[in-house]
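INFO batch 0412 | record 1 of 1 | parsing
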Amino acid sequence: MSLVTQTSTRPWLSPAARSRWALFGGLAALVIVADQISKAWVVANFKPVTAMLAQPGTDGAPTEVIGNWVRIAISHNDGGIFGLLGSSAFLLGLASIVVIAFIVVYQARQGLISHPILTVALGLLLGGAIGNLIDRLRLSYVIDWVDMGIKDWRFYTFNVADSAISTAIVLLIGISLLGDRLAPGPKPAAPEAASH
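INFO prediction complete | emitting tokens
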């Protein structure tokens, strides 16, 4: 059987499919590495925060990076993203494995034939899910460390994996809103004007 025949009957072997898998896997790997390295660095260099609103420089206070707007504030999250679902590391770990499997299957079914933005979104989702799952398996909690806000108004503390997941969600919303305008392939021809 020739290579041409094998590729046509197995679309996941085509050069275009291979480049999509490389994009998908490469983005996921980049997120995982960046997430784990950043977490290791902050844990090695900063103490967990005990008082989010304490004055800078006092014991247990966050470390300012860009004034009060961006700070390093290590916390341990044994719940879901943004601290949702309370203390349920085991269930969240199990759910993460199911989500990871779903992401890979969806990439195999839709990511290879849809707009490349879908592959980017799924790669970011996969990397974020695995990055936080590694923490849950190793530590039974996720290390969050980025604290953003204005004065006493603070957003949930997050990490690189959470950022990747949030970016992916924005991309998926964009894909769903733009719909057919992102579909690959030729655009349908405009209907001809009725003859008089």
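INFO post-check: Residues 1-8 have pLDDT under 50 and may be disordered.
INFO record closed
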